[in-house]
Amino acid sequence: MGRIRYHQIADDLRRRIVSGVYPSGQVLPSEAALGHEHDASRVTIRKALEVLRSEGLVESRQGFGWLVAAEALPQALAGLVTIEQQLAASGRTSERRVLDFRFVDAPAAARPLLGERVLEVRRLSLADGEPFARVTVWCREDLAAPLSKVDVERASFLELVDERPVGATQTIGAQIVTSDDAELLAIPAAAAVLVVRRTTHSAQARPILVSEHVFPGHLTELVAELPRTEHDEAAPPPGLRLVDQAETEAC
Q: φ and ψ at 85, to 5 degrees?
C-alpha cells in the first residue's frame, strides 16, 4: 500500500529542509503555492506541515505563515556592540553588504544631532548567509569625509570614526515591515519587524552616528538585565514610553 499523500508531501519538504534548500528561519511557500506544486488540497498540505511541526522542523507565525524552525538570536542590551560581534558570540557567521554609500542632506530626525550634511550608508546584514537585518547609518560629515565604501564594507562605524564612541541612546519598537525591507529580508509583506533607532555619542557627549536597524521579528530577541531598584510599582517600568498615535502616523 502506498503512503498516505500528506506523508509523502511531508517527506519531500523534510528532505528540502534537511538539505538546506529551505534553510533555518526561511519562510516557506504559502499553503496555496505548495498545494499547486504538489497537486494537493490545502487540507492535505496543512496535514503535511503539521507532521513537520510535530517533529520541530517548522512553525507558524502570525503574519509570516509557515517557516523553517529557527532559534532566535539573542542580542544583549548591556553594552554598545556591533551586529557582527553579537553574531560571532552566538556562533554565527556574519556578512555585510553595502547597498548605498552617499553624502546626502540629513534626514529630519538626524539634522539637529549631526548637522545639515551626512554620510548615509544602507546595508544588509546576513547571518549564516541569510538576511538578518537592514541597517541604515547616518554619520557626521566631518567624521565621514575620510571614509570610503570599502572601509564601511570591511568594518563597523564604531571601529572607523576618529571620535571614540562611548555610549548610545536607543529606542525599540515593533511595526509592519515596509515593502522595500520585506524584499530585502525575504519576509512576507504583512510581517512584523523590530525597529531599533540609535544615537551614538562620544566621550564629550557629541552625537556621532544616528542609525536604524530593522530585524525580522522571528529571528531576533532583545535581552536586557534588570537589576532591582526602588521604584513606584504603580508607575510604568523605567524606559517604557507609550507611542503617541500621531507620532506613529508621522513615521
A: -65, -40
Helix, strand or coil, per DSSP, at residue 16: helix
Helix (H) or strand (E) holding 157: helix 157-160
Q: Is the pLDDT of residue 87 over 80?
A: no
Query: Going from the N-terminus, what domains does the chain have, and what CATH number goes with each?
Result: 5-68 (1.10.10.10), 73-225 (3.40.1410.10)
SS (H, E, C) 160-223: HCCCCEEEEEEEEEEEECCHHHHHHHCCCCCCEEEEEEEEEEECCCCEEEEEEEEEECCCEEEE
| Rounded Cα–Cα distance for residues 130 and 140 (Å) | 30
Q: What is the pLDDT of residues 54-67, one digit of tens each?
A: 988 888 887 778 88
Q: From CA 64, how far away is CA 248, in angstroms rounded? A: 23
Angle 226-168-86 from CA coordinates, rounded to 5°:
70
Determine whether 162 is exposed, middle or buried from the number of CB atoms within 10 Å of its CB (0-12, 13-18, 19+): exposed
| Contact yes or no for 69/58 (Cβ under 8 A) | yes
Burial of 185: CB neighbours in 10 Å, binned 0-12, 13-18, 19+: buried
> What Å distances lie between residue 234 and 10, 181, 231, 237, 241, CA to CA?
51, 38, 9, 9, 15
Joined together, the cell numbers standing for residue 48 give 503535511
Q: Is the pTM of this model over 0.85?
A: no
Q: What is the pLDDT of residues 166-212, one digit of tens each?
A: 888 888 888 989 999 999 998 888 788 899 999 999 988 899 999 99
* Nearest by Cα to 129 from 26, 38, 237: 26
